[in-house]
Amino acid sequence: MAEMFLRRLSRWQAEGQREAVADLHVETNGAETGGASGVRADFLRRFEHDVQQTDFDMVVAHVAGNLVGCLYGYRADRGGAWWDAFRHVLSPAVVEQTASGRVFLLSEVMVAPAERGSDVAYRLRTLLLTRHTSDVVVAVIRPDDDQGREVLQSWDWTKLGEFAPRQEGWLRPPSPLP
């Protein structure tokens, strides 16, 4: 088995890797050739937005020189429509924790199909979150993202609920990372 290399990318490096990350996104989302261009374009639009956010942070995994995993997120702004929709699914205790504004939004988790079942996602998550002192870490996934749900459940994250536009919010447990 080839050795896995993890590394953190600066915003500039992340932007430079956008095409490789988009390829991984298409691969991990099982897009058929006919629909891949739309999936890719939607991802690149979101990525362009996300990479510009406050405290954007990204880690990647390579095996034998190939990109096999990527995880990124940013400090979420407590204003705007997304926060209003999200706040309504949070318990009062979690809302209190977010009062500091230190909410980290885990925006994307991708692991190549050939590497699933290994510890790629876990290692990426551990590396990414060791840098952040956020009071709350939240992941938002589509309701049909069974693989994402399985990963978050394996990390003992808690489903907070669903909010418009039909996404699920998941919260990192309060205990420190292992």
Folded structure, characterized:
With 178 residues, this protein is an alpha+beta fold. The chain has 7 helices and 7 strands; from the N terminus they run E-H-H-H-E-E-H-H-E-H-E-H-E-E. The protein has helices at residues 11-16, 18-28, 36-50, 81-87, 92-97, 120-129, 146-154, and strands at 4-9, 57-63, 66-75, 103-111, 136-141, 158-163, 167-171. A 7-stranded mixed sheet has the order 1-2-3-4-5-7-6. Strand 2 and strand 3 form a beta hairpin. Helix 2 (18-28) crosses helix 3. The model has no long low-confidence stretch (mean pLDDT 81).
Order of helices and strands: EHHHEEHHEHEHEE
Query: Helical percent range?
Result: 25-40%
Radius of gyration: 16 Å
Structural class: alpha+beta
Query: What's the shape?
Result: globular
Q: Which strand order spans the largest sheet, edge to edge or round the barrel?
A: 1-2-3-4-5-7-6
Main traits of this protein?
single chain, 178 residues, 7-stranded mixed β-sheet, globular, 7 strands, 36% helix, 28% strand
Describe the secondary structure blueprint for this structure.
Blueprint (H helix, E strand, L loop, with lengths): L3 E6 L1 H6 L1 H11 L7 H15 L6 E7 L2 E10 L5 H7 L4 H6 L5 E9 L8 H10 L6 E6 L4 H9 L3 E6 L3 E5 L7
Helix pairs in contact: 2-3
Short characterization:
The protein has 178 residues and is an alpha+beta fold. It has helices at residues 11-16, 18-28, 36-50, 81-87, 92-97, 120-129, 146-154; strands at residues 4-9, 57-63, 66-75, 103-111, 136-141, 158-163, 167-171.
